[in-house]
Design goal:
The protein is an alpha/beta fold. The chain has 16 helices and 17 strands. The chain has helices at 55-60, 65-84, 99-104, 111-119, 138-151, 167-173, 182-190, 192-207, 220-229, 257-272, 275-294, 299-302, 304-307, 332-336, 357-364, 409-415; strands spanning 4-8, 11-16, 19-30, 35-46, 52-53, 92-97, 126-131, 154-160, 177-180, 211-214, 233-234, 312-319, 324-330, 369-371, 375-377, 382-393, 396-405. The termini are far apart.
Length: 416
Amino acid sequence: MSPMLSQEGESWTADYQGLTLKTALQPIFSLSHKRVVGYEALIRAFDNDNAAVLPLHLFELASSDAENLLLDRLCRFLHIRNYSHFHDQLNWLFLNVSPSVVSTGTRADSFFGELLKKTGLPPHRIVMEIVEQPTDDAEKLRETVSYYQQLGCLTAIDDFGAGHSNFERIWNLSPDIVKLDRTLLTRATDDRKARQILNGIVTLLHQSGCLVLLEGVETHNQAMISIDAGVDFVQGFYFHKPSVALDQLRNRDMTDLDQLLSDYKSRSRVTMDPSDQITGFFERDFQTAVDRLRDGHAMQHACSALLNHPTVSRCYLVDEIGVQIRDTLVSDAATRNLDPRFRPLESTTSADWYRQQYLRQAIAKPGTLHVTAPYLCITGAYMCVTLSLGYYDNGQLYVLCCDILASGTANDLKKL
């Protein structure tokens, strides 16, 4: 059955196998710019009673590769036509590419360049989303992505982080934007370790030269996680749902990003960045330890107050070139919880810690107590923060270091 296209005012719809197809747009926001920078185009299908039909059921109607290709082209035709007359003539339009189109290569999709010419929509306002999926023909996938890039479109990898995702595809395809799958955010909502992994993935993608979009943001807490992860763009029901009423899709009823960022700054100062609390709490004990070391006391006695604190796992002394002096002092609480699987890493006599930022900071700025962000401690494979203080003794520079368990640190300090 051939699709019938129709236009009412500036809006286009299509009839496909008894269904009416319409364009829905969902805004995409830049956290830094605090405004909309693009819209993802989504197809919405309705039956004769104007009841919504799930997109999954719509695409199941295509019974062959040719029908799949036809439906994919029809959807993109609608989106391009509708966006050409949209009130926003600045920002991006994100378009999904059907897996069947990617698998057939550029010849089957050459119509897209002609469509852009006919509608007059500049290619640089289009972001083509390639779904992250396994493919038996990596070269054909590269050709498809290259085709859109040569047209002048931006390209995006969609659903990164789901199932088979890998960075090799990022390096091979060099997309402009990577859209993280919402499962990464869902896991990060309840699991601190997953949150750290999310932050690390965003950092790696930025280092690969990609902007990062996190989709599926549905709650205020997930918005906070998104900001903390350092993503560039966000999308989801929390900010705005998809809408087929394109003429009404304005900035009204959208999330107040100024208030959201204000909430994040307040939360960051109180709970997510406890650096001031930690340094303020331990500063006196550190100074006491340094004074005792200068007076010739043994490390065990000098650091007794630090080692008795329930969050402290170990203390150690380093010289001015980063080499540890003697072995590490482990607190009684940490000793009881030592994991025998990591016993080969426990002895750190003469270990060289110069590459660690906390040590270089302490050497560069003696007399100031420094604290790190949470990181994985190599001596026990647990998350910790490290406090470090450089001091002079008889003209020689030393650095006293103290590892603190990262989990629950802020809460433990509040109880004392």
